[in-house]
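Q: Predict the assembly, please.
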Amino acid sequence: MDDKNLIAKRVACELSDGMLVNLGIGLPTLVARHVPADIRVHFQSENGIVGMDSLNEHGLAEDDLSDAGGNPISAVPGAAAFDSAFSFGLIRGGHLDVTVLGGLEVDEAGLLANWMVPGKMVPGMGGAMDLVTGAKKVIVAMMHTAKGAAKIVPACTLPLTSARRVDLIVTELAVIEPTDAGLVLREVAPGVTPADVVAATTARLIVPDNIATMAV
Amino acid sequence: MCKLTRLAEAIAGIPIGATLMIGGFMGVGTPERMIDEIVRQGTGELIVIANDTARPGVGIGKLIDARLVKRVVASHIGTNAETQRQMIAGDIEVELIPQGTLAERIRSGGHGLGGVLTATGVGTVAAAGKPTLEIDGRIFLVERPLRADFALVAARQADHLGNLGYALTARNFNPLMAMAADRVLAEARSIVPTGVLPPDAVGTPCVVVDMLIAVEARRG
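A: Predicted assembly structure:
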C-alpha cells in the first residue's frame, strides 16, 4: 500500500455507519475506497449532493452531476441534491459529522492552514473555511512533510483556515491528536518509531509511553 | 410568453461595467449560451459574482479568456490559471469569499435581509475589516448582502411562463442568484409547455424571471 492509501485507510477507521462525511479534493477523496463494506457512509459534495458515488465509466457522465472539482460522478440510490445555501447549512449547522481535508501546515495549537501561500498560490478557500469551522469532527489527512520540510510546525506561518482546532492529524508516519496540552502522538505507522515522527516534526510533540501502531 | 427573448437581444441589454451574478459550479449549471453571446458581443469591464471561474475555455473561464472581467467575487479561482495570471498582473481584481458565506450573502441579498452572521472566517484574513457580534457567547462575522444588476442562471427545464426546474448538482447557486438581481435572465436546456413541470419540481418560480432565452430555430 502506498503512503496516500495508508493515510486514507487509517482515516476510514474514524467513520461509522450513518455518518455524513465530506472529503476534500486530492488525497482525502481516497478515503471513500477504504470504507468497510458493512457500513453505509453518506458522502456529501459541497456543490450540492449527499450520496455521491464514484463514476468509473466515462460513457455514463451526466452534464449536471459532478463533484466539487467539476469532475463527473455518480450517485447512490437514496441520494439527495440541493442548492449551495442548503449544502453549507449542512456544513455549518452541525449536521456534518466528519470533514477530511488536506493541509499545508498544522501547528501546536491544532490550527490548520490549507488554502493559500501568499505570493505563490492563491487558489481561494472554496468551502474549506466553512468545513473546518462547522463540521463536528475535522480530520487533516496529509503527507507528514513537503519536500523534506516539516508541515507540523510550532505556529502556522501561512494564513489560517479557521480559528477552530482540528481534531485529528493523520499522516503516513503517525496519528496525532491536538489537545489542550498540545499535540499528542497517538499512533505510529508500521515500521515507524516515535523518534522518526519527532524527527520529521518541528512542533513540540507530547509522546506518551503507550503508543499504538496504526491498524492499517 | 412575453418573457421569451432572443439571446442576442437579451445580452445586448447588459451594459459595459455591469455587475453579473452567474450561476454554476466549475462550469456545471452555468448558462453557457449567454456567456458565449457576451463574448461575441464583447461586453467588457464586467464585475462577476460567481462561485468560481471554472477553467480556461469553460463557462465563466471564457469571459476571463476574452478579458471582459475587471473584478471577480468568488470562493476560489484555483482551477483557472488564467484568472490567477491576470490577477497577479493587476489586470483583474479578485475578492475571495468562503463558499458558504458567498451563498448566504447572495441569499440574504435576494431575501431582503440586512446580511448574515457566520462563524466562518473568524480569526482569519477573511475577517479583515468586518464587524463582529457576540451572540450567546459565540463570535460571528457580520457579512453584508450581495446583489447584482443581472443574474444569469441556467436550468434543466423551463416552461412557457419561465418557471425553472434544476437537476442534480447543476442547481448550486442558480436559485439563490435568481432572487438577488434587478434583472434575471434564464436559459434552459429545454423549454416545455406550461403544466409539464409539476409545482413541486419548480426550483425558481416564474415571478422572479424577467427573460427566458429562446431556443434557436430547429432546422429541417
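Chain B has one domain: 4-112+146-213. The helical segments of chain B are 7-12, 32-41, 61-65, 81-88, 99-110, 174-177.
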